[in-house]
């Protein structure tokens, strides 16, 4: 939540009634409330519809009932919050920048821990993801609030860490297919992720597919 009297709720999260009760209580005294989504994944968005119904609001942003656009401004009593189109984790993904605090709420573009997040399995997803990281770095925020985990107080380091990880995966895949141009997806998968547990196989396979798609457009 950003602000107190004029407040924006970003990504109310999954449909957990106790959690939505707490959010509703926290905005009880507010004069203006807006409800925004960074993207439509259930762990960010599933609680939005029920919360909106309860508070008499519209859900704005990807997966909501009203679109946001690049540059859409939301007033809060701690400054303007501006919608920034940052696709990659999903095809439609927004971050929200609070200029006054040099802060960006990044949804799942970065996580608060580690060096990797899911990159969308749609054509162009990897290129979008890298472009969004570049854009976020150019904003030079003082702090990043991810949808999961603690705030990132060394934003540039974090952005570079996530970019390095993604780039190293891309390089690994490129190396496999430069050694063997007709390598199957399973061969690439075996080379990039040796000892992968079965439970992660399908997700890893999709992530290889989007990287192969990315490389095929850059050859
Ligand atoms: Zn997500």
Please provide a brief summary of the model.
By secondary structure, the protein is α/β, with parallel strands linked by helices. The chain has helices at 17-26, 42-45, 48-55, 125-139, 155-179, 185-192, 201-218, and strands spanning 6-10, 32-36, 59-60, 73-76, 79-85, 94-98, 103-107, 143-146. 40% of the residues lie in helices and 17% in strands.
DSSP helical segment count:
7
Shape, principal axes of CA atoms: elongated
Task: Return Rg in Å.
Answer: 19 Å
In the sheet with the most strands, the strands line up as 4-5-6-7-8
The succession of helices and strands, N to C, reads: EHEHHEEEEEHEHHH
Helix content: 40-55%
Number of strands: 8
Bound molecules: zinc ion
Question: Notable features of this structure?
Answer:
single chain; five-stranded mixed beta sheet; 40% helix; binds zinc ion
Task: Write structural notes for this entry.
- Helix 4 (125-139) packs antiparallel against helix 5 (155-179) and helix 6 (185-192) crosses helix 7.
- The protein has seven helices and eight strands, in the order E-H-E-H-H-E-E-E-E-E-H-E-H-H-H.
- The strands form two sheets. The protein has a five-stranded mixed beta sheet with strand order 4-5-6-7-8, with no helix packed on it. A three-stranded parallel beta sheet has the order 1-2-3.
- The protein is elongated, with a radius of gyration of 19 Å.
- It starts with 5 loop residues before the first strand and ends with a helix.
- The chain has 219 residues and is α/β, with parallel strands linked by helices.
- Bound molecules: zinc ion.
- Zinc ion binds at residues 39, 41, 44, 89, 108.
